[in-house]
Amino acid sequence: MSKKFRPFLTYRPVLYLLYRFIRLYSWTFRFTVENEHAWMDCLKGGGKVLLCTWHQQFFSAIRHFKTYSAFKPSLMISKSFDGEIITGVAERTGWRTVRGSSSTDGGKALKAMIENLNGSGLAAHILDGPRGPAGRVKAGAIQLALVTDAVVVPFYTTADRAWYFKSWDTFMLPKPFSRVTLRFGEMIRFEAVRREGDFEARRLELENIMLPGLIK
């Protein structure tokens, strides 16, 4: 894409049209949600919940995640050009966005995410985004869960018919009218880090739980 054309995609009217297109496109899916009630009960009971997924699969969840807007949830998004577009869509879905990543303003963004999660009780995190490597859990999700004492809830999306892009994450785009399933895993509460090696053990635990759900 031409660099001269890129700024056009971040104009507010263009982002609004993109958001509407995504909503209309997603409504063609024959959509099923599995195992949502347990963590929702936890959230409504005063608990804190961190939803986690792979970068490959987040698009399919956009439609349903609109239903969580009443909780004023937060999502960390990179400061890249792609992140600017995703931010425009996420905010129109009712999510609060925090700009930053492991490579740019990560500490500042993590601090804001902690504050938001402590306040609202709900946040989401893309574990291997924005640049991968695919299937590698970054440290931010573990730090966020430990500091806020939130339960981590993995989620996965699958489709019976989809396109897979030749990108670092093999990005999945369900085809129109495909059967799409959004499945939440069991709640995970990590014990506090007490000795050297504990943090890496928590990170590997989450990675090993979620890797089977990565589509290769």
Quick overview of this protein structure:
This protein is an alpha/beta fold. It contains 7 helices and 9 strands.
How would you characterize this protein structure?
This protein is an alpha/beta fold and 216 residues long. Helices cover 36% and strands 20% of the residues. It is built from 7 helices and 9 strands. The protein has helices at residues 12-26, 37-44, 62-65, 81-92, 106-120, 139-148, 198-210; strands at residues 30-34, 49-53, 74-77, 96-99, 122-126, 151-159, 162-164, 172-174, 179-184. The strands form 2 sheets. A 7-stranded mixed beta sheet has the order 1-9-6-2-5-3-4, with helices on both faces. The longest helix is centred in the first third of the chain and has 15 residues, at 12-26. The protein starts with 11 loop residues before the first helix and ends in a 6-residue tail after the last helix. The relative contact order is 0.19.
Notable characteristics:
single chain; alpha/beta; globular; two-stranded antiparallel sheet; 216 residues; Glycerol-3-phosphate (1)-acyltransferase; 7 helices; seven-stranded mixed sheet
Radius of gyration, taken over Cα atoms and rounded to an integer in Å: 17 Å
- Based on secondary structure, the structural category is alpha/beta
Strand line-up of the largest beta sheet:
1-9-6-2-5-3-4
Query: Which CATH class applies here?
Result: Alpha Beta
Helix percent band: 25-40%
Number of domains: 1
Low-confidence stretches: none
CA distance, first residue to last residue: 27 Å
Please report the total strand number as a whole number.
9
Mean pLDDT: 93
Largest β sheet strand count, sense and barrel closure = 7 strands, mixed
The SSE string, one letter per element, is HEHEHEHEHEHEEEEH
Strand residue content: 15-25%
Overall geometry: globular
Count of runs of 4 or more consecutive helical residues: 7
